[in-house]
Amino acid sequence: MTGRDTMTGQDMAGRSARYRIKPTPLMGVAMIVAYIVVVFGLQFSSGIPYVDWVSTPANGLRTAVLPLAVGSVLLVAFLAIARWDMIWRDPGRLPMTAVMKAALYFFVAAILVRAAGVDWGTVEVNLLLVVIASGVLVGFAEETLFRGIFLRSMRTNGRTEAVAALWTAIAFGLFHLPNLLVGSGPSQLVQIVLAALSGATLYAFRRYRGLLLTAMIAHGIWDSSAFLADSDGRDWLGPVSLALLAGGVVLGVLVLVSVWRTDKSTVVTPSGITQK
């Protein structure tokens, strides 16, 4: 839906009254910090080196499944208390540019290439189950946190969708900074940039149908395929993955540019999508 926002002052007051906690950028940041404290705290307290977090089923349960499950409960509890809208679904359909669609197709193609490059005969069944569980949980938790809660917190006070999407991508990149504390090394600084750009593509997944579920599915499968490619990938998959990574970086940048050009005057509110 496009056009002018026709909500009356009484309607806006009624909608605001439904919030037990008002959506604001500060509250969005607070939830990211709370999630980091809980999830990374549980991971760090395990005493398991970062490189061994998912090396065995037992390690994966302790450093991935358990922390992500607790983090998911935290987010669901917050939303039950706060009563925020526009978390799971947009109020209308935002346009998809050719660049955004290309990024989605490339993302799916990269997952399929990874799947083809995994030596499935060497994958331990119990570890595979842990990886799948971790993928489901990380897709749910991180998408609820970023393309759900944080994006909603930025869609306030008349901010344009371009600004909201850009800050959501930046926040998703910075979210990976604590990995430096658990032994991932200086290379994690590069990962922050890569995460921010992949976050732009995941935003496009939400935008595609206006549903957070779409981004959750894409995120979960992506992370699972990445782990399997690293642990049980065939020899040819390494160089191919680097090429796919380069393509993803370029498309991530182009998505952000496309969103900025398309939505620099677009405002998303609970009553619909308007133009300044």
TrEMBL record:
Residues 126-224 form the CAAX prenyl protease 2/Lysostaphin resistance protein A-like domain. The chain crosses the membrane at residues 25-44, 64-82, 94-115, 127-150, 162-182, 188-205, 210-228, 240-260. Keywords: Membrane, Transmembrane, Transmembrane helix. This is CAAX prenyl protease 2/Lysostaphin resistance protein A-like domain-containing protein. GO terms for biological process: CAAX-box protein maturation. It comes from Pedococcus cremeus. The keyword ATP-binding does not apply. One of its GO terms (molecular function) is endopeptidase activity. Pfam families: Rce1-like. The lineage of its organism: Bacteria, Bacillati, Actinomycetota, Actinomycetes, Micrococcales.
